[in-house]
Amino acid sequence: MKSFAFERRWFLRQLGWGVAAAGGMGTWLRLAAAASDSPPVPVYRYTPVKPGTLDELALSPGFEFQVVISWGTKINNDGESFGFNNDFLAFFPTNAENTEGILWVNHESAHPLFVSGKSHKKGTARNRDDVIKEQKAVGGSLIKINCVDGKWNFVANDKFNRRIDGTTPIPIASDRPIFGRTTAIGTLGNCAGGVTPWGTVLTCEENYHDFVGEVTFDKKGQRQRVAQLSKLGWESVFDLPPEHYGWVVEVEPKTGLAKKLTALGRFAHEGATPRLAPDGRCVVYMGDDAHDECVYKFISHQAGSLERGELFVANVEKGRWVSLSYQKNPEIKKMFKDATEALIRTREAAHAAGGSRLARPEDIEVHPQTGAVYIALTNNPKSGDLHGRILKLEEKDNNPLSLEFKISTFLEGGLAAGLSAPDNLAFDSEGQLWVTNDMSDQVQGQGEFKVLGHNGLFVVPTAGDFAGRPFQIASAPVDAELTGPCFSPDGKYLFLSVQHPGARSSGLDQLTSHWPGGGQTLPRPSVVAIKLPTVPTK
Ligand code: FEO
Ligand code: CA
Ligand code: CA
Ligand code: CA
User: Fold this and answer.
1) For helices 4-15 and 25-37, what crossing angle results, to 10°?
2) Distance from Cα 279 to the centre of ligand 2, integer Å
3) What domains can you pick out in the chain, each with its CATH number?
4) pLDDT range class, residue 39, cuts 50, 70, 90
């Protein structure tokens, strides 16, 4: 049971008062009384939900949700079904009223217990069928949805319903073949993403090493497979070179045509956030979600294509974007045999060029009004950074093409903020920042993290009295993480992924979650549509 002191701290924090302001209940009463005589303390527009401990998707008062689609739902007559662990979402309207459209859904991972029935212990033997089951659970889904009487429905067997998964052949857009090939088998580890100004999806391959392992290169550039098997060990069954993964993949939502964009570099791509430059070229911001890795910016050579362009890494100490171009940066030219090699080994190039090593850069979003770039750094426990933060990067002259910037902390994660490990970001049309967090299985509910409850969804004003203060709007079911926040075009609904409920289950007879079905059902990662309350704005 929570203590009264905790309840009070939580209440004060959610009202926007710091814990330090609360000397005792009397202090709060005096503050409240004072507020009635003098200018009232502004209360933010949404009443926050408490950090959750139950197996439910709990929402702030006035918010409602419904499940749109869950893992395993058959999507078409070709025998394809909705994948596992849904993440990034993007909505492409197909009518003028925006009441129907194609939803792109990333599927980041496949929990073996549910997908192939294998143990998720590293080194567990898999046969061909086991791997194919897991391959078919990742990648992405394109599904038709529509809104009827205020309810979003999945439209079964629609012509747009298709899967791009871990078995789909995908061309590699590159100067030369990679590991002797021009086509990769499948896409995997699809975490966050973005939408280009020309209406295609960018889906990002993050923890590819968990599926197919990794390669290293010695001083002479000789390639070596890391001997230890990956978590899922697909490489023990199929010939899947790690160099074919860790890319940003561009997908055309109406046709499903896909290509791997090598010009944007290869690393644990969290997301890719496009932004139009004044001259029509496309700029893409990207984070490499690993401990002590970097933030990148890509500037396309031409409007309407990301196949060619210049990649930069952020040096936050100097406030500069440093070019990783093989042609322009002599150090890079010395290190690698050609431009493709420099892209395959982006991390090595970035470190050599002085890229700043940050605390797991996750999602990045551009403020719709100010143009400031918000960057989630999730945490870095190895260096004592337990809770992470959100940075605000302002390009010089607010020009996306600028090579200089200013950087500051917008929000410091922690117990006082009530938010730890920020991950996905989304702006609404008013410029409120919506944040989901990803506390790891190891810390969630443990020690000092206990007061933070389950993972959640938060709204953070970016201007006014409450700028930089998170207010919790949703709390996830047991073991789950909320991901992929995506607003409907009218801003009335938020599509959201509920990823990995029951992830810590040790067996099908020892499930930690039964969400969303309840009873004794299997937990199922699902996409929900959250209806926002109609409330007066301040
Ligand atoms: Fe897949 Fe970095 O979260
Ligand atoms: Ca993420
Ligand atoms: Ca985002
Ligand atoms: Ca994460």
Assistant:
1) 30
2) 31
3) 1-41 (no CATH), 42-531 (2.120.10.30)
4) low
